[in-house]
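User: structure tokens for this one?
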Amino acid sequence: MNERVAQVLGELVEVVARLRAPDGCPWDRAQTHRSLVPYLLEEAYELAAAVADGDPSSIKEELGDLLLQVLLHAQIEAEAGRFDIADVAEALKEKLIRRHPHVFGGEKVRTAEEVRAQWEELKKEEGQAKKAEDRAKPALIRASKFVEVKEAQGQPVPGGRFLSLPEGEPDQVIAEALLEVVVEARKRGVDPELALHKFLEKHG
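Assistant:
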């Protein structure tokens, strides 16, 4: 590994541990896994917005903010003696190697779609396709993953049955279409978030 990367990451882990130390920052010391969840979600969305904007300096800053959340959660577990950030990194390394047999083993795949399908199949074999985890995700994120997996499996979800979308800026067109669906859901007394979750529970 690049020596600078190892050094800087090690120093960063020490800084976070210092913030959580008995004589550290009162706010950081008071945090728990639960109290940090809103910040974790906020930083993830801010990173997504920075990526959409395409500004490298903003992406770098938001990546750092999200990394801080990871380090804080790992530090909380380290203090409890259960695992630390090294264990997190090692588990991720092992999973990446296991989920990429076409790179680290003898499997052969030709396309990104085949890689995606293989990834999902390996997840099922490992017993990690957990519905409880799916239910914790926002319905639109879950639906996007559902469509992606179906496409990778060669079973694309048919589109265009209900909406006839005009030409225009894709983000604007989709946002307006989603807003119309929400309006229609309210007219029918349906919670669109729960309705989509129920559909995915049935067909996922």
